[in-house]
Amino acid sequence: MNKQTELASSQSNNKLMKKRTIFLLLFLIQAVLYAQPRYDSRVFKPKNPKTNDLVQLMYNAKDKDLEFSDEVNANLFIFDNFKWTKLILPLQKNSDGLWTANIPVKPSTAFIGVKFFQGDSQQPDVVDNNNNLGYAIALISAKGKPQAGSYLAEAAFQSPGITGGEMLSYYTNQPDSLEPAYLKMLGAKESALLGKNYVNYFQDFMNLQKLGLGNEFPAYAKKFVTDALANKSLDDETLGVFYNYANSRMKDVDLAKFIEKRVYSDFPNGATARFIAYNNTMGVSADQAKAISAYEDFLKRFPIEQWRKKPNNQNFIYYAVYRGLGSSYFDSKQFDKFISLYEDLDFRTGNELMRWNIMRAYMFKMVSKDTLYTISEAIMPKLIAQKGDQSYKEDFDTKAQADANVVKNLDDRLFTHISLLNDLKKYSEARKYFVELSENGKYNNAELNEINLQVLEGLNDDKQILPLLEMSARYNAMTPRMFDKMKSIYLKGHNNDDKGYESYLASLKSDEEKAEMKAYVEHNWVNHPMPDFRLESAEGSFVTPEDWKGKIVVVDFWATWCRPCIMAFPGMQLLVDKYAHDQTVAIYMLGTMQTGDYKSKSVNYVRGEGYRFHLLHDSVNPKTNEQDLLFKQLVPLFGDSSIPRKIVVKDGRIRYCSGGYSGSPSKLMDELSLAIEALRNEK
């Protein structure tokens, strides 16, 4: 090779080396960028805080949305002991114009995120979360070493799905996915810090690894769990964590079976064995006898008394098992066994068994009333005795909420039992259970109030009837028959003179009830054009917008299959009777969304029940062949397609709209009357 060739070769190699160097630099720059968090840590002081430092917020609002705020608060998201917690801190403005506050940290605090806001924390007026990138900082230990959980938190702060919970509310829009290389790096660093308590955050740790490793993750997860199982001294809790992950997340049947075998060997009566047995019991067979056998075997192996001596968070297991067993006993008519379960049940489980089985059987006539009475009468006192056991406390944020739920559910179960007793003319027993109702439950249900009236009449207890009617009127929970009874009592005491009856009736309603009704009606005013229509009546004639001119028109959308619609009929009848002689008010019951011979079904039902309604039929949509042409045009106004739905129309526009049924005929009459009179009196 001559010198010229050597020189050319040398220059070529130099160029190649430069290209490789440039490529390597670009790669390193890209890797560094991947390893950079998106959040801003400059609002924290010191720059690299330790868990024993005084950590401060130093927020400069200049050129930000909060610049001109008189009050700034900090919503802190603190990752402590591998869980996110939230804390609200008010900030003070210092002489430099910075908003400041001291942040409480603990030796277990690993990471802090913050967003600044003005106003209410739930619905703030203004928020600064660094344009959805976040303000945050990781802490180091008092010895200056990385804090366990800090890398996991760094990833979770930017990808909230990793740990979920409180972090999901930090961002106004969920941030874009992080680069896998960055997540893989964080996962590797967190892995190096794993301590003995990693089972407490194992799921979150694996979520991070899954995002970072991608296709490599399944092999990583299996190796991690398999290597961990090599430790022969693992406790029951740790084995439970691995079993759940292998069974539910990895879907590795063989690995799950391997862990199950070890659990049954090392901790045969432990919590994990209980969960595995429960998992194997639920849905074991569609055959009722086999299902019952599986439930009974589970309870023999893991009796609830054993769990109650050392309770943990597995109450849901017994709730599900007893629900399944109780329903199976009931459906197979093993009623003695169904009743015997109540010796073991708490209020929460007993309430659900009674709701699903007794109430359902009563409503749908699945069991004779005499048999149902025997069952219900045997379990009702036991349910009442358990009402203070606090078994609902885990389902609610506060004790007050849990207690209110118990009261409502007990009222509902008593309603069913009292209704059954009334049907069987067991009036003395029914009256005894009225005492167990809450004050609200005694008078707030119009249907139950009428049953109470029937009970008092059956007992010939005339002295209690008028007080009942007056309290029912106060709660605005009256049926047509109760109004008739009240008026007859009033006329009897006033020489058949009804001159002061309406004033008397109005005086019984509480101011609270009147204010609530007024507020409800005010909330439901609308102003929407009424679509054109041509609706057939029960008599075969047709109604058009021309027929409604100069009138205030109430339209009730209903269907024969809609139970709440049917339950509202007594209230609509009260309204019809009230305006029967008023030529400026028209009230129509408009059947919609029905199938088959809907005309005959509607007419026969209404007339068969004795209601005096003006019936209309919704038209059939020619495009879909469904009987909903007018109703579906109004769904955008309603917001959904549920019924019952009431509208009030005046001068070709829908002015009032409300949905559902409160359960009180008198309330429904008052609501629509208030709307009618307001429209009548408007200028």
Notes on the protein architecture:
With 683 residues, the chain is of the alpha+beta class. It folds into 6 domains: 1-34; 44-193, Immunoglobulin-like (Sandwich), CATH 2.60.40; 198-268, no CATH class; 286-430, no CATH class; 440-509; 516-681, Glutaredoxin (3-Layer(aba) Sandwich). It is 50% helix and 13% strand. It is built from 27 helices and 17 strands. The strands form 3 sheets. The chain has an 8-stranded mixed β-sheet, sandwiched between helices. Strands 3, 4, 7, 8 and 9 form a 5-stranded antiparallel β-sheet that branches. A hairpin with a 4-residue loop joins strand 11 (535-537) and strand 12 (542-543). Helix 6 (236-249) packs parallel to helix 8. The longest helix has 32 residues, at 3-34. The protein starts with a helix and ends with a helix. Residues 23-34 have low confidence and may be disordered.
